[in-house]
């Protein structure tokens, strides 16, 4: 079934490829899209195997397969082809080979039966799958709508600057979320009948994701010009202005991404689809309002924060309402992560400004502020972990204390002793009163 869907999408892309080429005014895009569409069949061939591995929580095996496929596709084929001047075709060939290698590897790990079959539960599963596929298609459209808007309104040069800024901040964060989503879905699915356990797991996932990504994103937004100048040089300064809205939009996108596993685990993918469709309507309205704008930076701010912010609000409200998590708990989670991110980002920003005043070159400032940001964040977490990380992440650290570094393990153990002593004193006081 997945192979048939993939083949249908290949045919659809072959038809609309000339339209996409005309939209972006790139005639050569037609042949690239048609050949690259074969990737949909190759990826579909490995989806069942990957799903079986995720069901077993065998994420280590999945990571090994992905790394090996990337080494083969891009390392052994893509880079040599690029070196010998094949240009964009080196990327196309690398992507196709990587997809084929990944599907073959994950199938070799599972060896599930091949063939077409239909069970008594096929109807409900098919409906569930249709909702998920439709939602993923809408998500893809939302994620690429800012790219489409900038490419259509401003041309190839501005689009290249936007994509470079997008690559720097959004793709690393998306990799974190992409790894967290299947893990959360597997855990949530096992806890779907345990209301308390599911609530705790989701709150811990939200707190952990915000704690890990919000300091990075806020810091990147405040020192965006230094990041771009240090990596690419001063001639890319416009990309620094585009990096700021992208960096601030990523935390909203991360929160919305964690709503998807909850809704799917509870058997309500239709709610996510409706939320994504509302986001599309809001995005189209934003695009219509910004069509007359002559500033690529203004369009980036409107599309990134407006679209991703709207999706975050819609899906977060939906997931919290479904679980019955009170808003004050969610506000506390956001407050702790925002406080940690604000303090670390402000320290980094002030250090960056001091280096600019001292006429330190951007290539030297960049590694310096990276070290300062990392030191500030880790120092704050070490000094007051329970307050800045929040109860959810702190309890998660207590449950997995054996896997923590020795320094953090001693620190967490000390806080646990204080917490237990405080609880005992509180219970004793309550009994006396």
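Sequence proposed for the structure above (433 residues):
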């Amino acid at each position: 079934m997945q192979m048939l869907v993939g083949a249908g999408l290949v045919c659809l892309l072959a038809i609309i490829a000339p339209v996409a080429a005309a939209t972006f005014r790139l005639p050569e895009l037609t042949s690239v899209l048609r050949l690259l569409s074969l990737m949909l069949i190759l990826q579909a061939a490995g989806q069942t195997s990957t799903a079986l591995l995720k069901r077993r929580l065998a994420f280590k095996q999945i990571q090994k397969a992905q790394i090996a496929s990337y080494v083969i596709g891009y390392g052994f084929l893509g880079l040599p082809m690029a070196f010998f001047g094949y240009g964009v075709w080196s990327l196309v060939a690398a992507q196709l080979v990587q997809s084929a290698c990944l599907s073959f590897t994950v199938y070799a790990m599972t060896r599930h039966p091949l063939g077409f079959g239909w069970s008594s539960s096929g109807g409900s599963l098919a409906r569930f799958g249709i909702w998920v596929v439709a939602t993923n298609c809408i998500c893809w459209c939302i994620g690429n709508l800012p790219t489409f808007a900038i490419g259509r309104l401003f041309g190839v040069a501005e689009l290249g600057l936007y994509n470079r800024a997008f690559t720097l901040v959004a793709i690393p964060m998306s990799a974190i979320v992409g790894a967290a989503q299947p893990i959360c879905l597997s855990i949530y699915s096992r806890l779907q009948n345990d209301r308390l356990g599911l609530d705790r797991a989701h709150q811990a996932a939200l707190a952990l994701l915000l704690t890990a990504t919000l300091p990075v994103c806020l810091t990147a937004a405040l020192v965006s010009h230094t990041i771009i100048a240090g990596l690419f040089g001063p001639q890319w300064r416009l990309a620094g202005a585009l990096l700021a809205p992208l960096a601030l939009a990523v935390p909203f996108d991360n929160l919305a991404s964690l709503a998807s596993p909850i809704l799917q685990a509870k058997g309500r993918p239709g709610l996510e689809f409706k939320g994504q469709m509302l986001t599309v309507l809001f995005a189209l309205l934003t695009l219509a309002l910004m069509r007359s704008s002559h500033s690529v930076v203004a369009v980036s701010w409107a599309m990134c924060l407006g679209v991703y912010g709207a999706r975050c609000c819609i899906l977060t409200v939906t997931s919290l309402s479904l679980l019955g998590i009170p808003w004050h708990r969610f506000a506390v989670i956001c407050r702790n992560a925002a406080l940690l991110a604000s303090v670390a980002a402000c320290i980094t920003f002030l250090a960056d400004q001091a280096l600019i005043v001292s006429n330190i070159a951007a290539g030297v400032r960049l590694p310096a502020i990276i070290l300062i940001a990392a030191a500030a964040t880790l120092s704050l977490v070490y000094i007051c972990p329970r307050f800045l990380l929040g109860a959810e992440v702190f309890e998660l650290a207590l449950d997995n204390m054996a896997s923590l570094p020795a320094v953090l393990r001693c620190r967490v153990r000390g806080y646990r002793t204080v917490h237990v002593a405080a609880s005992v004193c509180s219970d004793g006081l309550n009994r006396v009163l």
